[in-house]
Each structure stands twice: as structure tokens, then as C-alpha cells.
Amino acid sequence: MPRSRHNVVFITVDALRADHVGPQGDRASLTPHLDELRRQSVHFRCACSPTSYTWGSFASMFLSAYPAAVTNRRGVLVSPRPTLAQLLQQHGYATAGFNSNPFISASFGYDRGFDLLNDGLVLKSSWIPSRLYPLLAKAQRMVMRQPYLSAAAINRRAVRWLRRAREGFSPFFLWLHYMDVHGPYQSRRGFTYRNKYRAEWLWHKALVAPEDITPDEHDELVRCYREEISYADRHIGLLLDQLRELGVYDDTIIIVCSDHGDEFREHGRYAHWRQLYDELIRVVLIIRHPDGQRGLGIDSPVGLVDILPTLVDMLGLAEDSSQFVGQSLWPVVRDADISELSGFVVGDATPDRDDTIVSIRTAAWKLIVDSTKGAAELYDLARDPAEQTNVIAQHPQAARELEAKLRAELARQPTAAASDSAGPEWSAAEEREVLARLEALGYVDWVEEHEQQKK
């Protein structure tokens, strides 16, 4: 029998860097609502994503797996193993998800286990004449102020569902994914269509010619990114207020995390490229359990792969934990017991390609093995937290030991036999909207590869 029937609210924020949450020197915190939640929760200060982009991160969250083991080369979830939503649904939970990132839509297999997955794609309807698809996609893109639904819109949809779910007798699992922090970063000052076009132009320039970004443009990108964080934080606070108003807050497990960070030219680029530096893989992870610790900060490295086994353990679900690569964090949340934590996290920035960029991070070291460079990088994180000086020549033994541990960990889950599986079939309208949204978000290389594969 399940250990508890607590509700679960899972809040994910796209592209939110861990070092932008909470106090930052003499500047006021951008995230007062997340700060308040941290005081009621366990905050994992060295949580890491296994990769630097969305679909890989969510594959790890929903299946406690490394992305290459459960997705195909397009990023579609193809593993037959039950997802987080499926497990909870099988145990009697009402399940709903609200997001507008195409990479985690039904088109990529993320509707599995959801009674309702509202993924923000609006042109799927088969009744639309095919000749109108291009015009509708273009008109939609011109009208929408962002290539995604705002946090306010996500909240409205989620709360409507939540009010209905509260009337039933089942516990619920509610997932909300906020896209506001993802580029193109729009200024919240006035929030006009001029801001939209300015943001899109600057985002495109940052992606294709980062070396041409001027100091003033760099400052503008950072300022708008910070404004987007404040906006997302405010709406997280409003959602938590709604949970209190509906009388479900005290009996709900709340998990807040980000899927990856964004770079601001720390290593030469903007956004989130196929790299594994901390500005990209260090993420927010806050877990509040009604019976858990309050205001506890944990510095040991943990990963997004740990979320699924943690929830399975918290809820007492009868599942085979050997299928998970992650570890349960429930002993930490319940008793502040860190004795069983592994002390390392593994990353893979290229699960959809023949080349590899993989990493292992401990509290003291980061090793990155990059086949595209034919070289490895080792960083002493205590002395060089910004990962600017490769010290592998000075510490070859440490590098060898870390690489051996990295290879052994990745071998636990070989690349999926279904990696060439096509996944769900897309309608013509769905494909056009997905590609248009991804291109607007900056994933031009993915769109080009998709189009090339079709030829």
C-alpha cells in the first residue's frame, strides 16, 4: 500500500540558472517567493541536470535515466518504461500537465500518463485545410508576444483544472512548466510589441554571432533575463497562494526545479549549447514535503535523475528501484540524512549524436571528456568555480579516477535499442507549428536537421 496519499505539484522553470536564485551579493533577490519556499523546504544547492537542454533533462526527470537510454535521436521519448506521470496514474492519481515547450509536448511523447496534457500547441486540429497551415502558423507567431505561453496563462489553465480535481476523491499530480526565462528575453518594462521584436533580434544576434554582441547589448540581455526570472518567481508565488486558498497546500509535496541554465559568454556563447559547464547544468532543486525538514540546505551534488526515485520512495509506491539511475532523496528530506548520497553527478551533452561530450561532477572536481575536441578538461571547483583553468596536466591521477567512475556510470544504461524509433506520428499542422515554435526559441540547428532527415 502507498505510504501516503499526498498530492504532488511539480513546478519546472526553463533555463533558470541556480546562481540567480536567492541573494546575490549586495543586490536584492530576484526570487523572494522561491526564497520563502526554500525556508519551508530542503534546498539542494548543488543540483545538476544531466545535460544542457530541455528534452534530455526531462527524459531524466520523468524516467530517472540518462537521455541516450530512453530517447531517439530527435529527442522523442521512446522507452517503454512507465514515466513519472504513468506511475502516479497507475496508483490512482489524477494527472495533469501544462506547458508550451514543444520538446516536452505530446509530439515528443510526454502525454503518457496524463489525464490532461495541455502543451500549448493550437494548430493540431485535423479540420484545418492543409493550405492554411503556413498562413496560420505565421499569423500565430506574429500575434503571440512570445513563442510560448506566459506563466500567467499557464497558471490560469492549471488552476481551472485544480479546482475541478479538488472536488474529486483522488490525490492529484500537477505539473507546470514555465517558459518565461527562456530566450528571447523580453523586457517587462512596458511589455509592448516593440520589446518583442527587439528581444527577437537581439536573441538571434546572440545565438549566431556572440562575438559581435556589444557591452551594452550584453548588459541588456542580462537585465532582461533577470526581469524574466522575477516575473516567473512572482507567478510561482501566485500559484502557491492558490494552493493555500484551495486548502491543499499543507497536504501537498511541492518540487521546484529548472531543466538547465543559460550561458552569458562565460565560455564564449549565449543560451544553452552542447556544453556541460556549471552555468548550464547547475539547476534549482527545492523539495517541500509536509513531513519534511524546513530550511535545510544541502551541498552534496544530486541530480534531476533523483526526482522520480525520490517521489516513489516518498509515496511508498511498489516499484523496482533498480530501473532508476537516480537515488532517493527522501532520507535527506525526511531526516537530513546525507550518508547514502553518491556524491557525484554525470552529464551527457550529446545523446542524439555520434560524438560525445560527457562529464562527471563532484563537490571538488569537474571532468569533461569531449570527443569533438579530442581532449579532456579538469576543473578544481574550490579554486576555480567559474571553470576557466584546465588543470588536468597537474592532476592526471584524479582525472583517471573520475573518468573510470564516469564510464562505469554511463555503462549502467546503454543507448536505447529504440533510438531509431520515430515516436508519435505528427500531423502536417502539428509539425509546422512545432518547427515554427522551435525556430523562434532559437533551435535552428534542430529544425534544419529535422528538415534534412525528411529529404
Number of H- or I-type helical stretches: 14
Range of helix content: 25-40%
Strand order of the largest sheet: 5-4-6-1-7-11-2-12
- The gross shape turns out to be globular
What is the strand tally?
17
Euclidean distance between termini CA atoms: 52 Å
Note poorly predicted spans: none
CATH level-1 class: Alpha Beta
Portion in strands: 15-25%
* Rounded mean pLDDT score: 89
Q: How would you sum up the major sheet?
A: 8 strands, mixed
Radius of gyration: 21 Å
* CATH fold topology: Alkaline Phosphatase, subunit A
Structural class: alpha/beta
For CATH, the homologous superfamily is named as: Alkaline Phosphatase, subunit A
CATH architecture: 3-Layer(aba) Sandwich
Give the count of structural domains.
1
Describe the protein in words:
- There is one protein chain.
- The protein has 14 helices and 17 strands.
- The chain is α/β, with parallel strands linked by helices and 455 residues long.
- The chain has a single domain (7-343, 420-454), classed as Alkaline Phosphatase, subunit A.
- The protein has an 8-stranded mixed β-sheet with strand order 5-4-6-1-7-11-2-12, sandwiched between helices. Strands 14-15-16-17 form a 4-stranded antiparallel β-sheet, covered by helices on one side.
- Strand 8 (263-264) and strand 9 form a beta hairpin.
- The termini are far apart.
